[in-house]
Amino acid sequence: MTTENQTKIYTPDAAFAAAANVSGMAAYEALCKEAETDYEGYWARLAREFVTWKTPFTKVLNQDNAPFFKWFEDGTLNASYNCLDRNVERGLGDKTAIIFEADGGEVTKVTYSELLAKTSQYANVLKSMGVQKGDRVVIYIAMSIEGVAAMQACARIGATHSVVFGGFSAQSLRDRIEDTGAKIVITADHQVRGGKKLPLKSIVDEALTLGGCEKIQNVLVVKRSGAEIAMTEGRDLWLGDLAAQQSTTCEPTWVEADHPLFLLYTSGSTGKPKGVQHSTGGYLLHAALTTKWTFDLKDNDVFWCTADIGWVTGHSYITYGPLALGGTEIVFEGVPTYPDAGRFWKMIQDHKVSIFYTAPTAIRSLIKAAEANDAVHPKSYDLSSLRLLGSVGEPINPAAWEWYHLHVGGGRCPIVDTFWQTETGGHMITPMPGATPLVPGSCTLPFPGIQVAIVDETGNDVPNGQGGILVVKKPWPSMIRNIWGDGERFVKSYYPSELKGYYLAGDGAIRDANTAYFTITGRIDDVLNVSGHRMGTMEIESALVSCTELVAEAAVVGRPDDTTGEAVCAFVVLKRSLPTGDEAKAIAKKLRDHIGKEIGPIAKPKDIRFGENLPKTRSGKIMRRLLRSIAKGEAITQDTSTLENPAILD
Ligand code: WTA
């Protein structure tokens, strides 16, 4: 039997396909063909259909200053107008925009009219504080209606938001505040997750004492816990109180299509996290378009993306895409395992969720819990409202895919395994659920119009069946526009000269010899993906060596992990003799806590190993490949002849 016969293929259900927004393979191919024949015409058509422009654009793509591409450059628009006012004007004012479920289970709903009013009040508050078009606002808040409204409020007045995930430490927050040069931070007193009240405002206070944040004029605080917190007179203000005094209308500020809608920091292989700069027009187009086609969103759907608004998935598929289409969506404050591991299934049942989008790590951990306890198994819930499932952030292994399909989707829901990145703004490779036959573990085919390919180190196409480097050959509307304040790093990171002007994704991939389907094989740079969270090995190494009283040298690599996909493994050379037993454990804990403080809990290594030295080449380079093998517990098969001190392997 050949592997081809062994691969299970799931063809779309005929009824689903017939009703789908992209209905059948012929429709998919027609869109690809349209893009191929007239690339700019294709994107211009969609930009006119999906985005409402204040001033229509006459230019589509400007490549004069490649790779600093411009899309729809003479058009003007407002993202918040497109997500809110436009829906109210279409008669959707009373439609539920957001169903918010708090950690403890309380439910709050807001309609489009209400969300527009709240957003406008927040926008008026920001204006009253002197925030103008182009100013940056940092948002450090948990999942909430207020968080979405704060982002929309920035967009409304042309301010550029930069959301920092609530799990990042004061130091990481400080770095981001400084790099953005923000004037304002919007935060909450606390966040509540898994039954615990966790500080947010006090972390902002600490960040602002660390230096470099002198531009911050005000901290606007949302009341979540209502507990007593320290407020600095003149600087800190309660956002709710200020908003209540403001008008519920605010004229949108019309911005050029390439005006930066947001900055979102993400890890690369070198240096500090980079501020990925996104546009307004092109970004919004792709967020809306992918929501419509990949998720097949329709008027009566209840859409739930479980990502946090601190990550790009929460930007595109909570704050912008579903709202731009006038959808109804869930915003969930809590965690999948509280009060028990049936929380997701219970919420799908309670809210009659029809489209569910989550990460493989969550699925894998819920599989474990369900297998141990029937009460939290999806079969104990009524999930019949579901019609489509999605996966994002990391490769989904076929076993988890099959379980998700059978137990969550009842065998009837297509799964869209969506490959994309912070930099791409929206889906790049993904099935069209009413068209693409699915193969577990493969993200299948390019989104219509996206020119992805697999090449070798010199940018030449490799044949199907052979692995290589994933690139995007042509600019696309929602692409990263720059790294905030560092154009040189932008060019170096994404448009290396040897790749013929193609965008370098940083992932390896392979296309199936028969189907031409893509499978992502993982990062080819020093970026780790732990539970779908991106981290640079260098960042974690710098955090370790910044513990100067203990650490002489450190190297960090990833190793495969059953639940989190990848786990952080650190090799540390201490300034003292090798510790053993309890002492080694105590030092490891100290280092983990230190990383928690420097970056955030998500970066804490699973393994910390101490050694007398790190394996290096004679020219002094750390041999990471070797460390990766050691981390995995593999036999060393690499050539170690270049190793400076072979004895160290022991
Ligand atoms: C990985 C998240 C395999 C990939 C939207 C990419 C995936 C990085 C998938 C981006 C997928 C994302 N299959 N790998 N469906 N989706 N990745 O910027 O390595 O947080 O480069 O964006 O996640 O992570 P980021």
Describe the structure in your own words:
By secondary structure, the chain is of the alpha/beta class. The chain contains 19 helices and 30 strands. The strands form 9 sheets. The protein has a 7-stranded mixed β-sheet, sandwiched between helices. A 5-stranded parallel β-sheet has the order 7-6-8-11-12, with helices on both faces. Strand 19, helix 15 (398-408) and strand 20 form a beta-alpha-beta unit. It is globular, with a radius of gyration of 24 Å. Mean pLDDT is 95; it is low at 1-5. 5'-O-[(S)-ethoxy(hydroxy)phosphoryl]adenosine is lined by residues 266, 311-313, 392-395, 417-422, 443, 505-507, 520, 523, 529, 534.
Give the distance, in angstroms, between the N- and C-terminal Cα atoms: 43 Å
Number of strands: 30
Largest sheet: 7 strands, mixed
Share of helical residues: 25-40%
Q: What is the spatial order of strands in the main beta sheet?
A: 5-4-17-16-18-19-20
The number of helical elements comes to 19
Q: Which regions are unreliable across 5 or more consecutive residues at pLDDT < 50?
A: 1-5
Mean pLDDT: 95
Structural class: alpha/beta
- Oligomer kind: single chain
**What shape does the CA trace take?**
globular
Strand content: 15-25%
Q: What small molecules accompany the polymer chains?
A: 5'-O-[(S)-ethoxy(hydroxy)phosphoryl]adenosine
CA-based gyration radius: 24 Å
